[in-house]
Design goal:
Largest sheet: none
Helix content: over 70%
Mean pLDDT: 84
Order of helices and strands: HHHHHHHHHHH
Structural class: mainly alpha
Number of helices: 11
Number of strands: 0
Length: 338
């Protein structure tokens, strides 16, 4: 039988960060990150926590620094780099479309990390005063979630602005997350101040990101859907030759074989139809509906991948002016393919 006082400590240590994560998921009216994805990223964060335990012990024994210095300046960089590696993977796979899902993914990773860390300390320091767990639950745990969320938001924003996925684009986010973590650890001997600082800073920042991101998503959906509709009408009516892109189409016809041009136009039509379907799915989610992925969509995605190989890199480059291949557009196709 688990003692009641240990259950109370566990609740205080674990529930605040879990409750804040649940709130973030609930606030996402478009449900950009599904429950399965949240749980998977939490598990990934938990694995990082287990790995960090061994890495921190090894580094602390190898470096000529005391525990306080290591905790303030080295551990934050190590832990945020390892947590952030999951975000790097997601961004490079175009699995994150907007700051709102970057925040959810980041906070979920930090939550998984914090849960494992606090469970470990609950086992080691079973008789600690309840105040210790108030600090760890409302301070340290939320700091872990918030720092990784900041890494995700900054990294996704820069990757989208620069339209690149090189590792250099993730450095500012890593430094920002490590700075938040390090500042929190500066007050090891006055943990109440660290906890109050985290509670006053991180939740409001995340809620502001959510509010602004949802407005940006609404604007993008409207513009994206209209542009796709116009292009699809031109393709279906044969009016593309008389549009502003007609000159580029003439160039393609002059430099590629007719059968390859046909494959390019088919690829363009599939890409545009899939983009419209993804936009429609988001609009349905905003209305509280959860659309099922049509089996036809998976067949269309498979055909599009086949056409990518058929037309090759040169052909894909030739039709690039017809396509919107920003991070958000690629994310739409990723979302449909899940």
């Amino acid at each position: 039988m688990i003692p009641v006082d240990l259950l109370a400590r566990g609740a205080v240590a674990l529930l605040p960060v879990l409750a804040l994560l649940a709130t973030l998921v609930w606030l996402d009216s478009y449900k950009l990150v599904g429950l399965r994805a949240v749980l998977l990223t939490m598990c990934a964060g938990a694995l990082v926590a287990a790995g960090c335990y061994g890495i921190n012990l090894a580094l602390l024994g190898a470096l000529p620094v005391d525990f306080g210095t290591y905790s303030r300046f080295i551990a934050p960089l190590v832990e945020e780099a390892l947590k952030g590696a999951i975000i790097v993977y997601l961004v490079r796979r175009h699995a994150i479309g907007f700051p709102v899902d970057a925040a959810v993914f980041g906070f979920a990773i930090g939550t998984g990390f914090a849960v494992i860390e606090n469970l470990y300390y609950l086992g080691v320091f079973r008789d600690s005063h309840i105040a210790v767990w108030v600090v760890r639950g409302f301070g340290t745990a939320i700091m872990h979630g918030g720092a990784t969320a900041i890494f995700a938001i900054v990294s996704h924003t820069l990757a989208e602005q620069r339209q690149e996925r090189s590792f250099a684009v993730f450095l500012p986010g890593l430094l920002a997350a490590a700075l938040v973590h390090s500042l929190y650890n500066q007050f090891l001997f006055a943990p109440v101040y660290s906890t109050l600082g985290i509670l006053l800073f991180l939740p409001p920042v995340l809620f502001i990101v959510f509010e602004r991101s949802e407005r940006a998503l609404q604007r993008w959906l409207a513009a994206d859907f209209d542009a796709d509709t116009e292009l699809l009408e031109l393709l279906n009516s044969g009016g593309l030759e008389h549009s502003r892109l007609g000159r580029h189409l003439d160039f393609i016809k002059q430099h590629f074989a007719p059968e390859l041009v046909a494959d390019m136009l088919c690829y363009l039509r599939l890409h545009t139809e899939l983009s419209m379907r993804a936009s429609a799915m988001l609009l349905m989610r905003e209305s509280g509906l959860e659309p099922e992925v049509d089996p036809e969509v998976r067949a269309m995605i498979e055909e599009m991948h086949y056409l990518e190989k058929s037309i090759g890199k040169t052909g894909q480059h030739a039709i690039k002016p017809f396509l919107r291949l920003s991070a958000r557009d690629l994310w739409q196709l990723y979302m449909l393919g899940k």
